[in-house]
Amino acid sequence: MDGRAGDSSPERKRGLPEIDPTLRATAAASAGGTLAIWWPAFTLGAYDAIFFDAVMGIWAVAAAMLLSGLLLRSRRALPWAGWVALALPSTWIVLAVLAPREHGFRYLHYFEVVLTLAGAPALAWLMTRILLPEYAELPALHRLRAIAVIVVVGILAFLLGKFNYLFLTCADFDVSGNNTPPGCVQGPPFHLL
Questions:
Q1: Does the CA dihedral 105-51-81-157 come out positive or negative?
Q2: What is the 8-class DSSP label of residue 51?
Q3: Per residue in 41-92, pLDDT tens?
Q4: Among 109, 63, 104, 54, which Cα is nearest to 86's?
Q5: Crossing angle of the two packed helices 108-131 and 80-98, in degrees rounded to 10
Q6: Which residues are CB-neighbours of 68 under 8 A, at least 6 positions away?
Q7: Furthest-apart CA pair in the chain: how many Å?
Q8: Which residue windows are transmembrane per the record (predicted)?
């Protein structure tokens, strides 16, 4: 205990150091963005495809935020571009429903890739702005650092997917319930014991 009077935070009571609020806000923004981008980037690297579950996850979060804003009638909470960004995943689904099933709309998949790779960081930024008010108070350099972390993790996840044979086996993909990507290495799955 450092003996400061009046500080009754749980961290101070246990003698743990207080975490810098700037670090907390930057790390939270970075972590949120990387959670949204790492799996689509990995699958793009490993399979040359973005799985529908990643796009549907982005849609679910965007739809929840969009509906929350509409139900609370807080249109002024975000700029119009924010509302458009939140509506993009639903727009993709409507276009996918309207596209012919047997031939499809070949450019729709490019929209899906752009939506995922550009929309995931944008959605993470919007979520951070809404859910983490400290982020808006960060200096621009710290906000840019959080974005840089998200981009770097996305690139690294893509490369890990592309070179998965260096640290994963086909059995690792099988055990996880995924199809084996082209070029995976035969071998046993990873086990702790």
A1: negative
A2: -
A3: 899 999 988 788 887 888 888 888 888 878 877 656 677 777 877 888 888 7
A4: 63
A5: 150
A6: none
A7: 72
A8: 51-71, 78-98, 110-132, 144-168
Spatial distance between the Cα atoms of 56 and 49, rounded to a whole number of angstroms: 14
Q: Quote the tokens at residue 164.
A: 């998965």
Q: Record the tokens describing residue 84, joined without a space.
A: 């458009």
> How many angstroms separate the CA atoms of 163 and 12, rounded?
45
Whether residue 171 contacts residue 187, with contact meaning beta carbons closer than 8 Å, is answered with: yes
Give the side-chain half-sphere CA count within 13 A for 69. Answer: 21
pTM exceeding 0.90 = no
What long-range pairs does 86-90 form, CB within 8 A, spacing at least 24? 86/62, 86/123, 86/126, 87/62, 88/62, 88/115, 88/119, 89/55, 89/58, 89/59, 89/62, 89/63, 89/115, 89/119, 90/59, 90/62, 90/63, 90/66
